[in-house]
Amino acid sequence: MKGKKTISTRGTFSNICFCLRFLFQINRKLFWIRVPSTVFLVLANFVNVIFMRYIFNALTEEGGVKIILLLVTGMVAVSFTISTLNAFLSKIDTKEREITSYKLNLFLSDLAMKMKYADLEDPKMKDFISLAGSVNPFFDVLTYTTGFVTALLNVSGFAAIIMTIHPIVFLFLGLVVLTQIIIERKMREYQGGWRQETGPIFRRRNYLADMASTFRFGKEIRANQLGPWLLEKFYQYHQDQVWPADRKNRKAVLRFNTLTEGIAVLQQAAVYLYLGYKVVFQGIPLGDFTMYMTSIDQFSNYVSGLIGNYSLLMGAGITAREIRYCMEVAGKQDENTEEGSLDGFDKASFVITFENVSFRYPNTEKLILNNVNIEIQSGQTLSLVGENGAGKSTFVKLLCRFYEPTQGRILLNGKDVATIPYAAYADLLAVVFQDYKLFAYSVEENITLCQNPDPDRLQESIEKSGLKEKVDSLPQKESTMMYKEFDPQGIEFSGGEGQKVAIARAIYQDAPIIILDEPTSALDPIAEYEVYKRFSDMCRGKSAIYISHRMSSSRFTDKIAVFSQGRICEYGSHQELMEIENGVYQKMFTMQAQYYQ
Questions:
Q1: Of 456, 481, 510, which residue sits at a domain end?
Q2: Contact indicator for 187, 110 with CB cutoff of 8 Å
Q3: What are the CA-CA distances from residue 407 to residues 76, 79, 321, 390, 479 (Å)?
Q4: pTM of full prediction above 0.70
Q5: Residue 564: partners with Cβ closer than 8 Å, 6 or more residues away
Q6: Quick one: which of 319, 276, 283, 275 has its CA closest to 129?
């Protein structure tokens, strides 16, 4: 599906039905309200047309005043009743739309978080996500379906009235409608291809706009005075890519619309000439003439609405493909896994095994990891060292199951981790990433990441991570809000303090495996030394995997794996590796040590 530029009509209808079924599952009330509301909207049109026919005919008859008054009163009463019912249903509809929107946003947010990390990094998937996030195809499909059904009922009713004039009039109007449908279909096919073609263009446009307005870029922009540079890039990209793409689409749509409108004008002129002939030479009553004129005008209007809503509905069906695809991809997260496969798992006794693991990133040829074999015992601490690009971070990504090995397997107690439900597997890991993220909530929530925290575990995490002095100095202790997005009194931690929050978070999780990716990179030497002193206490009884470019940190771990060009070239304790003459680890450690003498 990723590579397709067009989508069949059958596929589009499938997407439309998918959206309607999904909305029906979320909130059935919305549909039960739309049915009577649509019926009342249609009745309102025919009530006026039919009543006006008899009113105008009564005006040409002697002694018809009472009848006229009765007809006018009846028309007002029926119209008022229908309008009142529609207003009542519209109020309920608005409420149900809000409820549905909440449930839908909740679902889509959960969907995005369930999607595999590997899929999120795929540029093609980013295009799909960008397209899916630009509109809401679910409500679009519902709105255009309702509009289409309303227009179809109106067209059918007014067509029945027009048939009483002469069948040839209806056949003529039918040919016009068929021509307009063909034109609309051609326009829809064009725009479907245009959306796919321009997806990467508009994703980059959104990224440029995001750079200028997002907080995370704010310091870099101001410190380096990047405003003019970014604005020039934004303008130049629009001039080179966005505006040409948009201009091409506008010109094509203008051609289609001009042709459609021209046909509509010719239709209207032909029908008016025929009705004029009927009045002059066949003497049809004034009321009938008015009814036919109104019916033909309404028929033309609702045919345009029918075609327009059909076109918009099919466009929404094409758009729904992106979000449907994302939902299908997210749904594969735990495909081929075994429910309850970690029941009885012993956190105190396990072995993680990388068995002949090789890996290359999707759509690339270079092997980042090449035939890696290693065992990590429960309670063992392991350092991963090596030059940049040697494969250390990729090793951790595979361990976290952000990606699956290209070749080989990762085993937990002899069981392929790919067969373990991801949620169960993720509970085994507590990870501190180098690019950790903190949230605009309280310090407590940033550490515990839960609604009902354990106070004792929280305090223990704060103590072990070295945050106690900082937290005690805050105005509301651990309840102090971070950042100022929602609280003007919120605080912003320094890089080192923020890193300690991330470490405290990992400690609080109390998982049997701790992964620390450059956990002291933002700390000063004294704070780094304090973390090293607490390292054994932090990881007591757990397996710890430690990535660092500071070779001194490896002395605190049981084993060291030295990565070079995607392979583990040396493995052992600090003392064992230092005894390897001209060894990679010995050279790296000696080279760094000289700067601290």
A1: 510
A2: no
A3: 77, 72, 32, 18, 47
A4: no
A5: 386, 387, 390, 584
A6: 319
Tokens standing for residue 370 = 């090449």
- Domain containing 566 equals 345-428+511-597
Residue located via tokens 């896994």:
337
pLDDT, one tens digit per residue, over 393-423 is 889 889 988 888 999 999 988 888 888 888 7
User: What does the DSSP assignment read for 333-394?
Assistant: TTTT--TTTTTT--TTS-EEEEEEEEE--TT--S-SEEEEEEEEETT-EEEEEESTTSSHHH
The one-letter amino acid code at 13 reads F
Q: At what angle do helices 29-59 and 9-26 cross, to 10 degrees?
A: 110
Token digits for 555?
């002395």
> Is 454 strand, coil or helix?
coil
> Domain boundary at 304, 330, 356, which?
330
320, 378: one domain: no
* Sequence-separated (6 or more) residues with CB below 8 Å from residue 189: 6
Q: Which residues contact 279 (CB under 8 A, 6 or more apart)?
A: 289
CATH number of the structural domain spanning residue 577: 3.40.50.300
pLDDT in tens, 522-555: 566 666 666 666 666 677 778 888 887 777 677 7
What DSSP element (H or E) covers 305?
Answer: helix 286-330
> What is the number of domains present in the chain?
3
